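I hope you will forgive my troubling you with a question about protein structure. I set the record out below, with my sincere thanks for your time.
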Amino acid sequence: MTERQNPPSATNAERAESHPAGGHKLRTSVPQSANTARIHEPSAWLRGAAARRVRQIGVQLKDIDTSAYGAIVAPFGRTGAPGSRADRSCDRCDSYVPEGDLLHMFVYQPTARIHLAGGLCTSCARKEASR
C-alpha cells in the first residue's frame, strides 16, 4: 500500500484567492507587496451594503445581455462629479472627506463578475481593517 499525502492546508487568504466563484474579496488601497493586496473577512456592514448594491445592479441590467462582459465594475455608493461632495463622501458613514484628507479607496468583489469601487473615511477604514 502506498501512503496518501495530503496537500498542506491553505490559509484563509489563499482560499479566498482560489475560490472558484471569486469569493468575497476586499482589496484595500495599501498593498502588502507588489503582487498582492491585503485580503480579509469583510464586516457585516460591507456584506449587507454590497448585497443591496448587487440587487440594484441586477435590476438595472435585467433587460441587458451581460454574457459578453468579463466583469462589471460599479460604484459602491453615491457618485458625483470628480472632487464633489458626493464623490468625496464615505460610503459607510456618509461623512465628507475634504480635499487633502485621505479617502481610503477600495474594491470589493461580492460575486465572480461584479467589482464594487468605493471610498471610506479614516475612521471607517480603521473599523473595516480591524475585522
Observations:
- The longest strand covers residues 114-120.
- Confidence is low (pLDDT under 50) at residues 1-23, 28-36.
- The two ends are 46 Å apart (CA to CA).
- The CA atoms of residues 89 and 113 lie 26 Å apart.
